[in-house]
Amino acid sequence: MRYVFAGSLGAGVYYVLFSLGWLALARWVPYLVLAVAASTMTAIITYPVYRNVVFRTGGPILRGFLRFYVVCLWAMFFNVAGLAALVELVRLPVLVAQAIVLVVGPVINYQAGRLWAFRQREEIHAQ
Fold this sequence. Notes:
The chain is mainly α. It has one domain. It has 5 helices and no strands. Helix 1 runs antiparallel to helix 4, helix 2 packs antiparallel against helix 3 (61-89) and helix 3 runs antiparallel to helix 4 (94-117). The chain is elongated.
């Protein structure tokens, strides 16, 4: 349930940031650039929720964020590729395509976060 909450929060934050950027800057900034910017800002905003609420981990914050951001980079790649495919190949409107990609991404990201970014080291479990 915590992951669903955080994923929903992240998707909401991302979609708001992306949509506002798209509506304000579409004339001057390509939608894929807006996707990268919104993804980066969402990672910064949601990291504390994933760290403290979802996975409840300790340790160095910067190292944890960098690992988390690697997972976010995968999500960003998936998002940009999926968004481009739906817009350019399927010809969906940008905001509709973005909503579809947002629904599929969290399923993949949960496994990456659980198994790598927020895994507990064996030494910690042994204590």
